[in-house]
Amino acid sequence: MGLYEIMMLDDDLRDMIIQHASTQVLRMEGKKRGMRTLRHAGLLSIYDGITTIEEVVRETIMEEE
Fold this sequence. Notes:
elongated
């Protein structure tokens, strides 16, 4: 099973990318706009009984840094 993080682009986000905004800035802005992070997708999979906490933490550990 895959976990996916999808950021829907709008004109403002596109401009930020063109202006070389950092990944951290883009992620923060995406979250403000409702982007579901890998960690959040993993938590929903835990609640659905599809995966374990350990697996989600292992696969999303870099996300929190």
